[in-house]
Amino acid sequence: MEQGRAGEAFGTAAPATAPAVVRVPEQARGEHTHSEPHAPRATVRRHSVRGQILEALRAALVDGRLVPGQVYSAPALGARFGVSATPVREAMQQLAIEGAVEVVPNRGFRVSERGPRELAELAEVRALIEVPVMLRLARTVPPGAWCALRPLADATVAAAAVGDRASYAESDRAFHGAVLALCGNEQLVMVADDLHRRSQWPLESNPATRRADLLADAAEHTALLDALIAQDLPVVRSLVREHFTGAEG
User: Fold this and answer.
1) How far is the CA of 128 from the CAs of 13, 87, 132, 148, 195, in angstroms?
2) 86 or 2: whose pLDDT is higher?
3) By CB neighbour count within 10 A (0-12 exposed, 13-18 middle, 19+ buried), where does 169 fall?
4) Model's pTM, two decimal places?
5) How many Cβ atoms from other residues are within 10 Å of residue 145's Cβ?
6) In what order do the strands lie in the sheet with 108-111?
């Protein structure tokens, strides 16, 4: 699917840096072919399509193509994606569970409208979870383990440099998730990732994060990693706490 068609799915043209929505195989659309797989394989493929649609919708949330307050119908989005309404509806239902959209009976799904207070509350909860863990890890994890995370920090810088908000959001969560994973608590990592994802949805009054803000946030990742490798605990403590005062940390 062309990027332009993906943009049309959300009622606006997709920016040049927006991630392309993957083409959906004809078999996955339910169209009959001579090589159509048996039912179990078709089920796996359908779930794969749903996952692809979910990731595309999440990217559209982050970069503002899904507009807060606007209602979108599954059939209309499905037509734009070239799939049936079913995987779109399933993906939207997952987003409703996550709080990104609200179900509107007989109409579709409304993108949730959020204010600065909700964003501040998310940042506070994330800080309560992540700051103590990061400070503990700074005292116990050897420099070599931190060096292994350098590519993840570099990925946030690369995404920020081109202003790709969707790619930045993904790489940002990957970096934070890899840091927290060093604590060995899988439940904590999952909870933190959910909070992090929610904090990346745009505010109604500020749907697009500025490229300069992305660059500043990415620079904090690099500085934090440098301090962790150097085992400079005072700098780590300062950077970690400062990182959660921003909207994109």
Assistant:
1) 39, 36, 7, 26, 12
2) 86
3) buried
4) 0.74
5) 15
6) 71-72, 108-111, 101-104
